[in-house]
Amino acid sequence: MKRLFSGALVTMVVASSLLAACGSDTTKTGDASAAPATEAAQEVSLTMGSWRTEDTEAYSKIIAEFKKSNPNINIQFNPVKNTEYNTTLNTSLQSGSGPDIIHLRPYAAGAALADAGYLEPLDTLKGMDVFTKDTLLAATGTDGKVYGVPTVFSSTQVFYNKQIFEKYKLQEPKTWDELLKIADTLKQNKVTPLAFGSKEAWILSLTQGTLAPSEYGTDFINKILSGEATFKSPEFVSSIKMLKDLTPYFPDNYIGLGMDDMRNMFVTEQAAMMVMGDWEYAVMKKTNPDLQMDVFPIPPKKADGKPTVTTWVDGSFAVNAKSAHKAEALKFMEFLTTKEFGALAVNELQKPSTIPGIVANDPLVAKIAKNADTISTPYAAVVYFNKGNPTTKAALEKSIQGMYLDKLTPEQVAEEVQKSADTWFKSTK
């Protein structure tokens, strides 16, 4: 499957900690079949942590399907708000508890938990050979071991309201100028062109990562990785200026708006477009089943350029190294590697599966998955620059917030991002 990444891979350099043994659990690492038969017959309850509160219904169906073959294993899906998840999870793990099954943030965040010894390595888990090395990279520790089963890809593109587009005789744009003309037409007709808010920082790096390839192409990030360019290069500065230039098409009070507000504007048809990840499709469809929506990739600046969507492995599931029931948790990990789960993921979570060969029933999900397969570029802030203290991703988000508050210029945003990268990033040259 043609997915991430055409560029350089993430280099991880921190030594990992030894994993703690789990009480009386004598199960071999990654081998769910090693548990004694008497243990396997017992009724066991597992907890599953996640930041995906929106997916509660979907995971109830996924867990129910798993339970058909494992009737003695009960799994309770216990998500918390996405902005509170990292703190909640870290606090519980540091206290020696935490969920048995952990929804793992991708790349550097997941590697940090592995390095701290909180996760069980899964290299020998049955079924892991179904994933590509690039896919497994999202759940690989700095020691080179794999600590999570990647479940779905995420991609960001532009959602749009088909009825509003039809009303004003608008077509999916093929160039950036066409996109701006669409936005002008909508604004002239008193329709908010873009549902957007700068209150929640993650929305800003996601928006920049999605739109920026239109400005600097798909090779520029590779130049930063190799040392041929920096965040202060004109190409990156232009990508930040492009975000500033879009403000006339945002809601009047966008500075105070968050994700819930953005979603509400789109599903109630107050806004015609929204730059967002594919995970919102299922949420919006449930909120307004009558909403007629579609997606288009980010159009290039020039007619001969290539459209793009931005992709990454959205998350993996890992096993808590201190779980009292690792054998049962590992059985669920094996289930996550099957095509049975892949079909459930793509049709219940409404997202592209990490398992090759899975086709979605929903035409829009199938379109999203096809774009992710054929015209994707990595979400650089997550894949390559989510390190540092604070991370370079966080520096990007804070600086863009400052720009929207008229406290920083695009050039100053670029300087702040480069300043953060200089504290930890080493080019590959």
TrEMBL record:
InterPro entries: Bact_solute-bd_prot1, SBP. The keyword Coiled coil does not apply. Keywords: Signal. Residues 1-20 form the signal peptide. Pfam families: SBP_bac_1. This is Extracellular solute-binding protein.
